[in-house]
Write a structure and sequence with these properties.
Mean pLDDT: 76
Strand content: 15-25%
Strand order of the largest sheet: 5-4-3-6-9-8-10
Largest sheet: 7 strands, mixed
Distance between the termini: 30 Å
Helix content: 25-40%
Radius of gyration: 28 Å
Shape: elongated
Structural class: alpha/beta
Number of strands: 16
Amino acid sequence: TPGTRYPVVTSAVAMRMASSSKWGWALTAGPRAAEFSVSPEPMGCHDPSGAPKIVVGMMSMAAVTSRRAQQRRVLSRFGGKHCTRVVFALGVVGLGHPQFQALETEQAVHHDLAYLDVVENMDRGKTHAWFTYALRKFPNTWYFAKSDDDSFINLANLDAQLRLLPAQRLYYGFDCRHLQAHKLEGYFVDEHDFRSVLFHCGEFYSLSRDLLECTMGAPWTKEHVNGFEDQITGKWISHEKCSVNYATDMFRFADFPNAHSKQHVWWQELGLHDDIVVLHQLKQQQDWSVLENWLDAHSALTEVSQQHVDATPFRQGVENVVPSMSRSFYAHVHDMEAKCSRLSQKPPPELVVWNESEASELCGGCLLVANYFTSNPEWQKASGWGTEESENFRKKKRLRDCKSAECRTPIGFDFEAMRIYYESAKAARTCILILHDGGMNEPFLQHYRTDRIRFLQVDPLSYDKVYDRRFGLNDARYFNVHEVMCSHPGMVKVFFSDLFDVKIGKRPCGEAETGKIYIGQDDQPMASPWLASRFEEMGG
């Protein structure tokens, strides 16, 4: 909810001894983030020696001075009140005298270069050299991170997230196994086959001192420093059987939205939310320019970053920063909260379907909501939802193999598609509201409207302008449901469901408790051929 920080999407995994395993240990899932007993921080923002709480080694090459200058310019926006120190890790073995002299001149000005005793490389020991250097160079620092130089790090948000996580045995980043940790429960890992090892992607990951010390001094670790640097780090932890709080965040770590990253699935639009910790894939100067323009538009950034690390510099909305960029997500959430308050106090007549007495006496304060939208056929064709092919597949009357928008036929309004829902709702004597976007004509509405089953025309496309983006009908409907709920404060129990494939078994209102959220569940979702087909189309 706005104003709070939901827990990081976290899996904790402990390496435990298992006498039944020939390999001697197994992975066992630990508590989720909400269940963590968060340890007190081993130190405050800075300890008396002046050591930072976290040191980030940003991988860099001696000749790439422009990227270091870019990083310094962006990081300087956070002032000096954060708890992080960023240094640029450089392999200096084999550098010529002029190159090293240039680095010394740069070091004299900025004091942020870490000289590593290796030849410059990416996957042949540089990361191991960095962590070895960092443990020795910063004896009073607790967290150590590795980062790429095409990553933007929000230092304030990084500080804040570390305060929410266990301080001991922490391994924090973006899960390169894409949330597969739960599948490793009880799985015994072959010491010679590390394909099952958990590891965080190389754009940024952080380890606590005790976890690094568990791994770095081991002979096996020192002998195995070559290989994909992010994966090899996970191997060190696994081989040494170090207990680890594996904290992975697939929400606050994301790729910057550019042509390259949009070929994949982990990019986010700027302004989607305020809690971003790391943005990766800032490959070109134009990417950094867009980011800086966006940061410039946050007038509160500098002053907020001067406060304690609990501050959130991206809490303000953004408008008209770059063409097509929308306001901050949280700004819209706050707008919707204020809108809901206004609607509850003075509901507009066009949204009022039941008056207060009807809501209480006829409906018992309980409402079921569904929708039948047909106003965006192009979206239906592209997504496959609400098409003849989709519904015939569901009903096991599949007409033809059709997976492309060119061959899908959007369903217009057809009462047969909603007959089962309508008749079962009528028999259950439950108050039902069916939202439509103009597909139902007046004769139909007059014929099928009853005291308890009513219809309301809404515009699901209107929020496209509010957010400056194109919503699918499947997403846009929730805005309309929100308006209806806010306009009927007397409805204290509200259920929302699909329409085409739902049958109302009985009135759910009596057993439902106020103050609880009820959700449906598919026990074996992949057993459905229809859903399996959808999953495959989405890349699963």
